[in-house]
Amino acid sequence: xxxxxxxxxxxxxxxxxxxxxxxxxxRRWEARTLGEASETGKGKKQKAGRKPASKAPxxxxxxxCLSLIFPACxxxxxxxxxxxxxxxxFNLYLPQFxxxxxxLAVLPIVLWRGRRLAWMPIAAIVWVVWPLMGLxxxxxxxxxxxxxxxxVRVMTFxxxxxxxxxxxxxxxxxxxxxxxxxxxxxxGDLPVQILKQLPGYDWRESRQFAVFSRxxxxxxxxxxxxxxxxxxxxxxxxxxxxxxxxxxxxxALASIRHVRSFGSGPMENNAEARWKEAVSIGRDLEKEIExxxxxxxxxxxxxxxxxxxFTSLGFTDAFAAGGLGYGYTYGHNSPAGHSFMRIDHILISxxxxxxxxxxxxxxxxxHRPVIAELILRSR
Length: 379
Prior knowledge:
12 strands, 12 helices
């Protein structure tokens, strides 16, 4: 076979084309590989040049921990029984918001120097505002009264003899129109004025204690000057009322100013006396068969051993179960200028269901009244 120049030329052109294509693909692959390596190198350099997250100084960590320690210690002593030590008993009558002040002071510093630790002062503030200050939120599940259930609107009010503003006291009673009105520190001429606000009510009085009711009342029996007992006849049966006024901490609190001279004795003795009064009332309550209400000025917050004496018998604080907010009843006439503790209570036995509870106006007395709307379940 002879040599054909045309065929040879076509074959060479085809080989050159294939070779050129391989070279181009090879160059593209190298460029891509070099580009990726270059980008990787840049990334490593950027990561290497990035500064690591700075740690918060130790003193910021210590400050955050301290903001939590304060409410934790107060909670611990409250759980153990605050009346066991004079300083924790004294704390019961302080505005509990003071324990949030360290956290409020620390929070801006932590946000500036160590944001990751901001949860500490924030948790401390929530801790104080909710459990320590006694924030209450009622259950969203409302009780549906049955056909045999009875509704009763109860109001307890320490009127302090209506010395501050008698007109405001009477206006408060008229506005609330309770079915049962339980009063402490009654003055001799006030029943007539109250009956003008509640015409047609039955009433009983024994020294500082008085009870007014739409329904008939049995005689009011006073026991030891600290509580009075009566019975009210309702369509669901008798209702037992304990009108309570326990020992005041006023003079014991004043003695704290001179604790170096008098020691802690007055505060400890006062707390013990109030607790013993509660124990004595508790013994009488254990004998009761009918549904009972313990209402009045207990001169003690709910976390105290005094109030726990009643809750240990199965009584429920109406505001804790059916109130919204703090329900403070005392302190508005103090230098603080607003109520900051809840020492007036309506405590109810097991057959009662609170549907609403709140504190009234502060115009007429050193104490705000407490009003509870209750349902007495049928047997």
